[in-house]
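Why does residue order matter? Because the sequence determines the fold. Keep that principle in mind as you read this record.
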Amino acid sequence: MNQHISISESEWRVMKVLWDNHPQTLPEILDRLKDTGWSKTTIQTYLARLVKKGALLTTRQGKGYLYDPAVSERDCQLAESRSFLRRVYDGSLSEMVMGFVKSGDLSREELKELRNLIDEQEKKDGDLK
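Structure:
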């Protein structure tokens, strides 16, 4: 993703529906978001904002549109993560990770995954030298 597209929490919910299954029509999107309690107008507003931001593409289909993500979920996750890191941890990934580790909120499984990721990265770095 070349540019960071700022997506609100509600817009993320809409995007998740489309990342999970795309393209979709408005009636399909409305059905998948019925548990939110949002009105049709509210959902249409979110869709219009996402199109304007460049996060969604539309294709005319009959009297309506097909909505399709223009950006991948992974790209948006990375962009949001980087933005969060800059704002909250002055860009320091290690400070963020250390904060979570020291908080004691990580499960044994999560700690094991972190150790494995670090080991894998160290092996890759060693192979490059």
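The chain has a mean pLDDT of 92.
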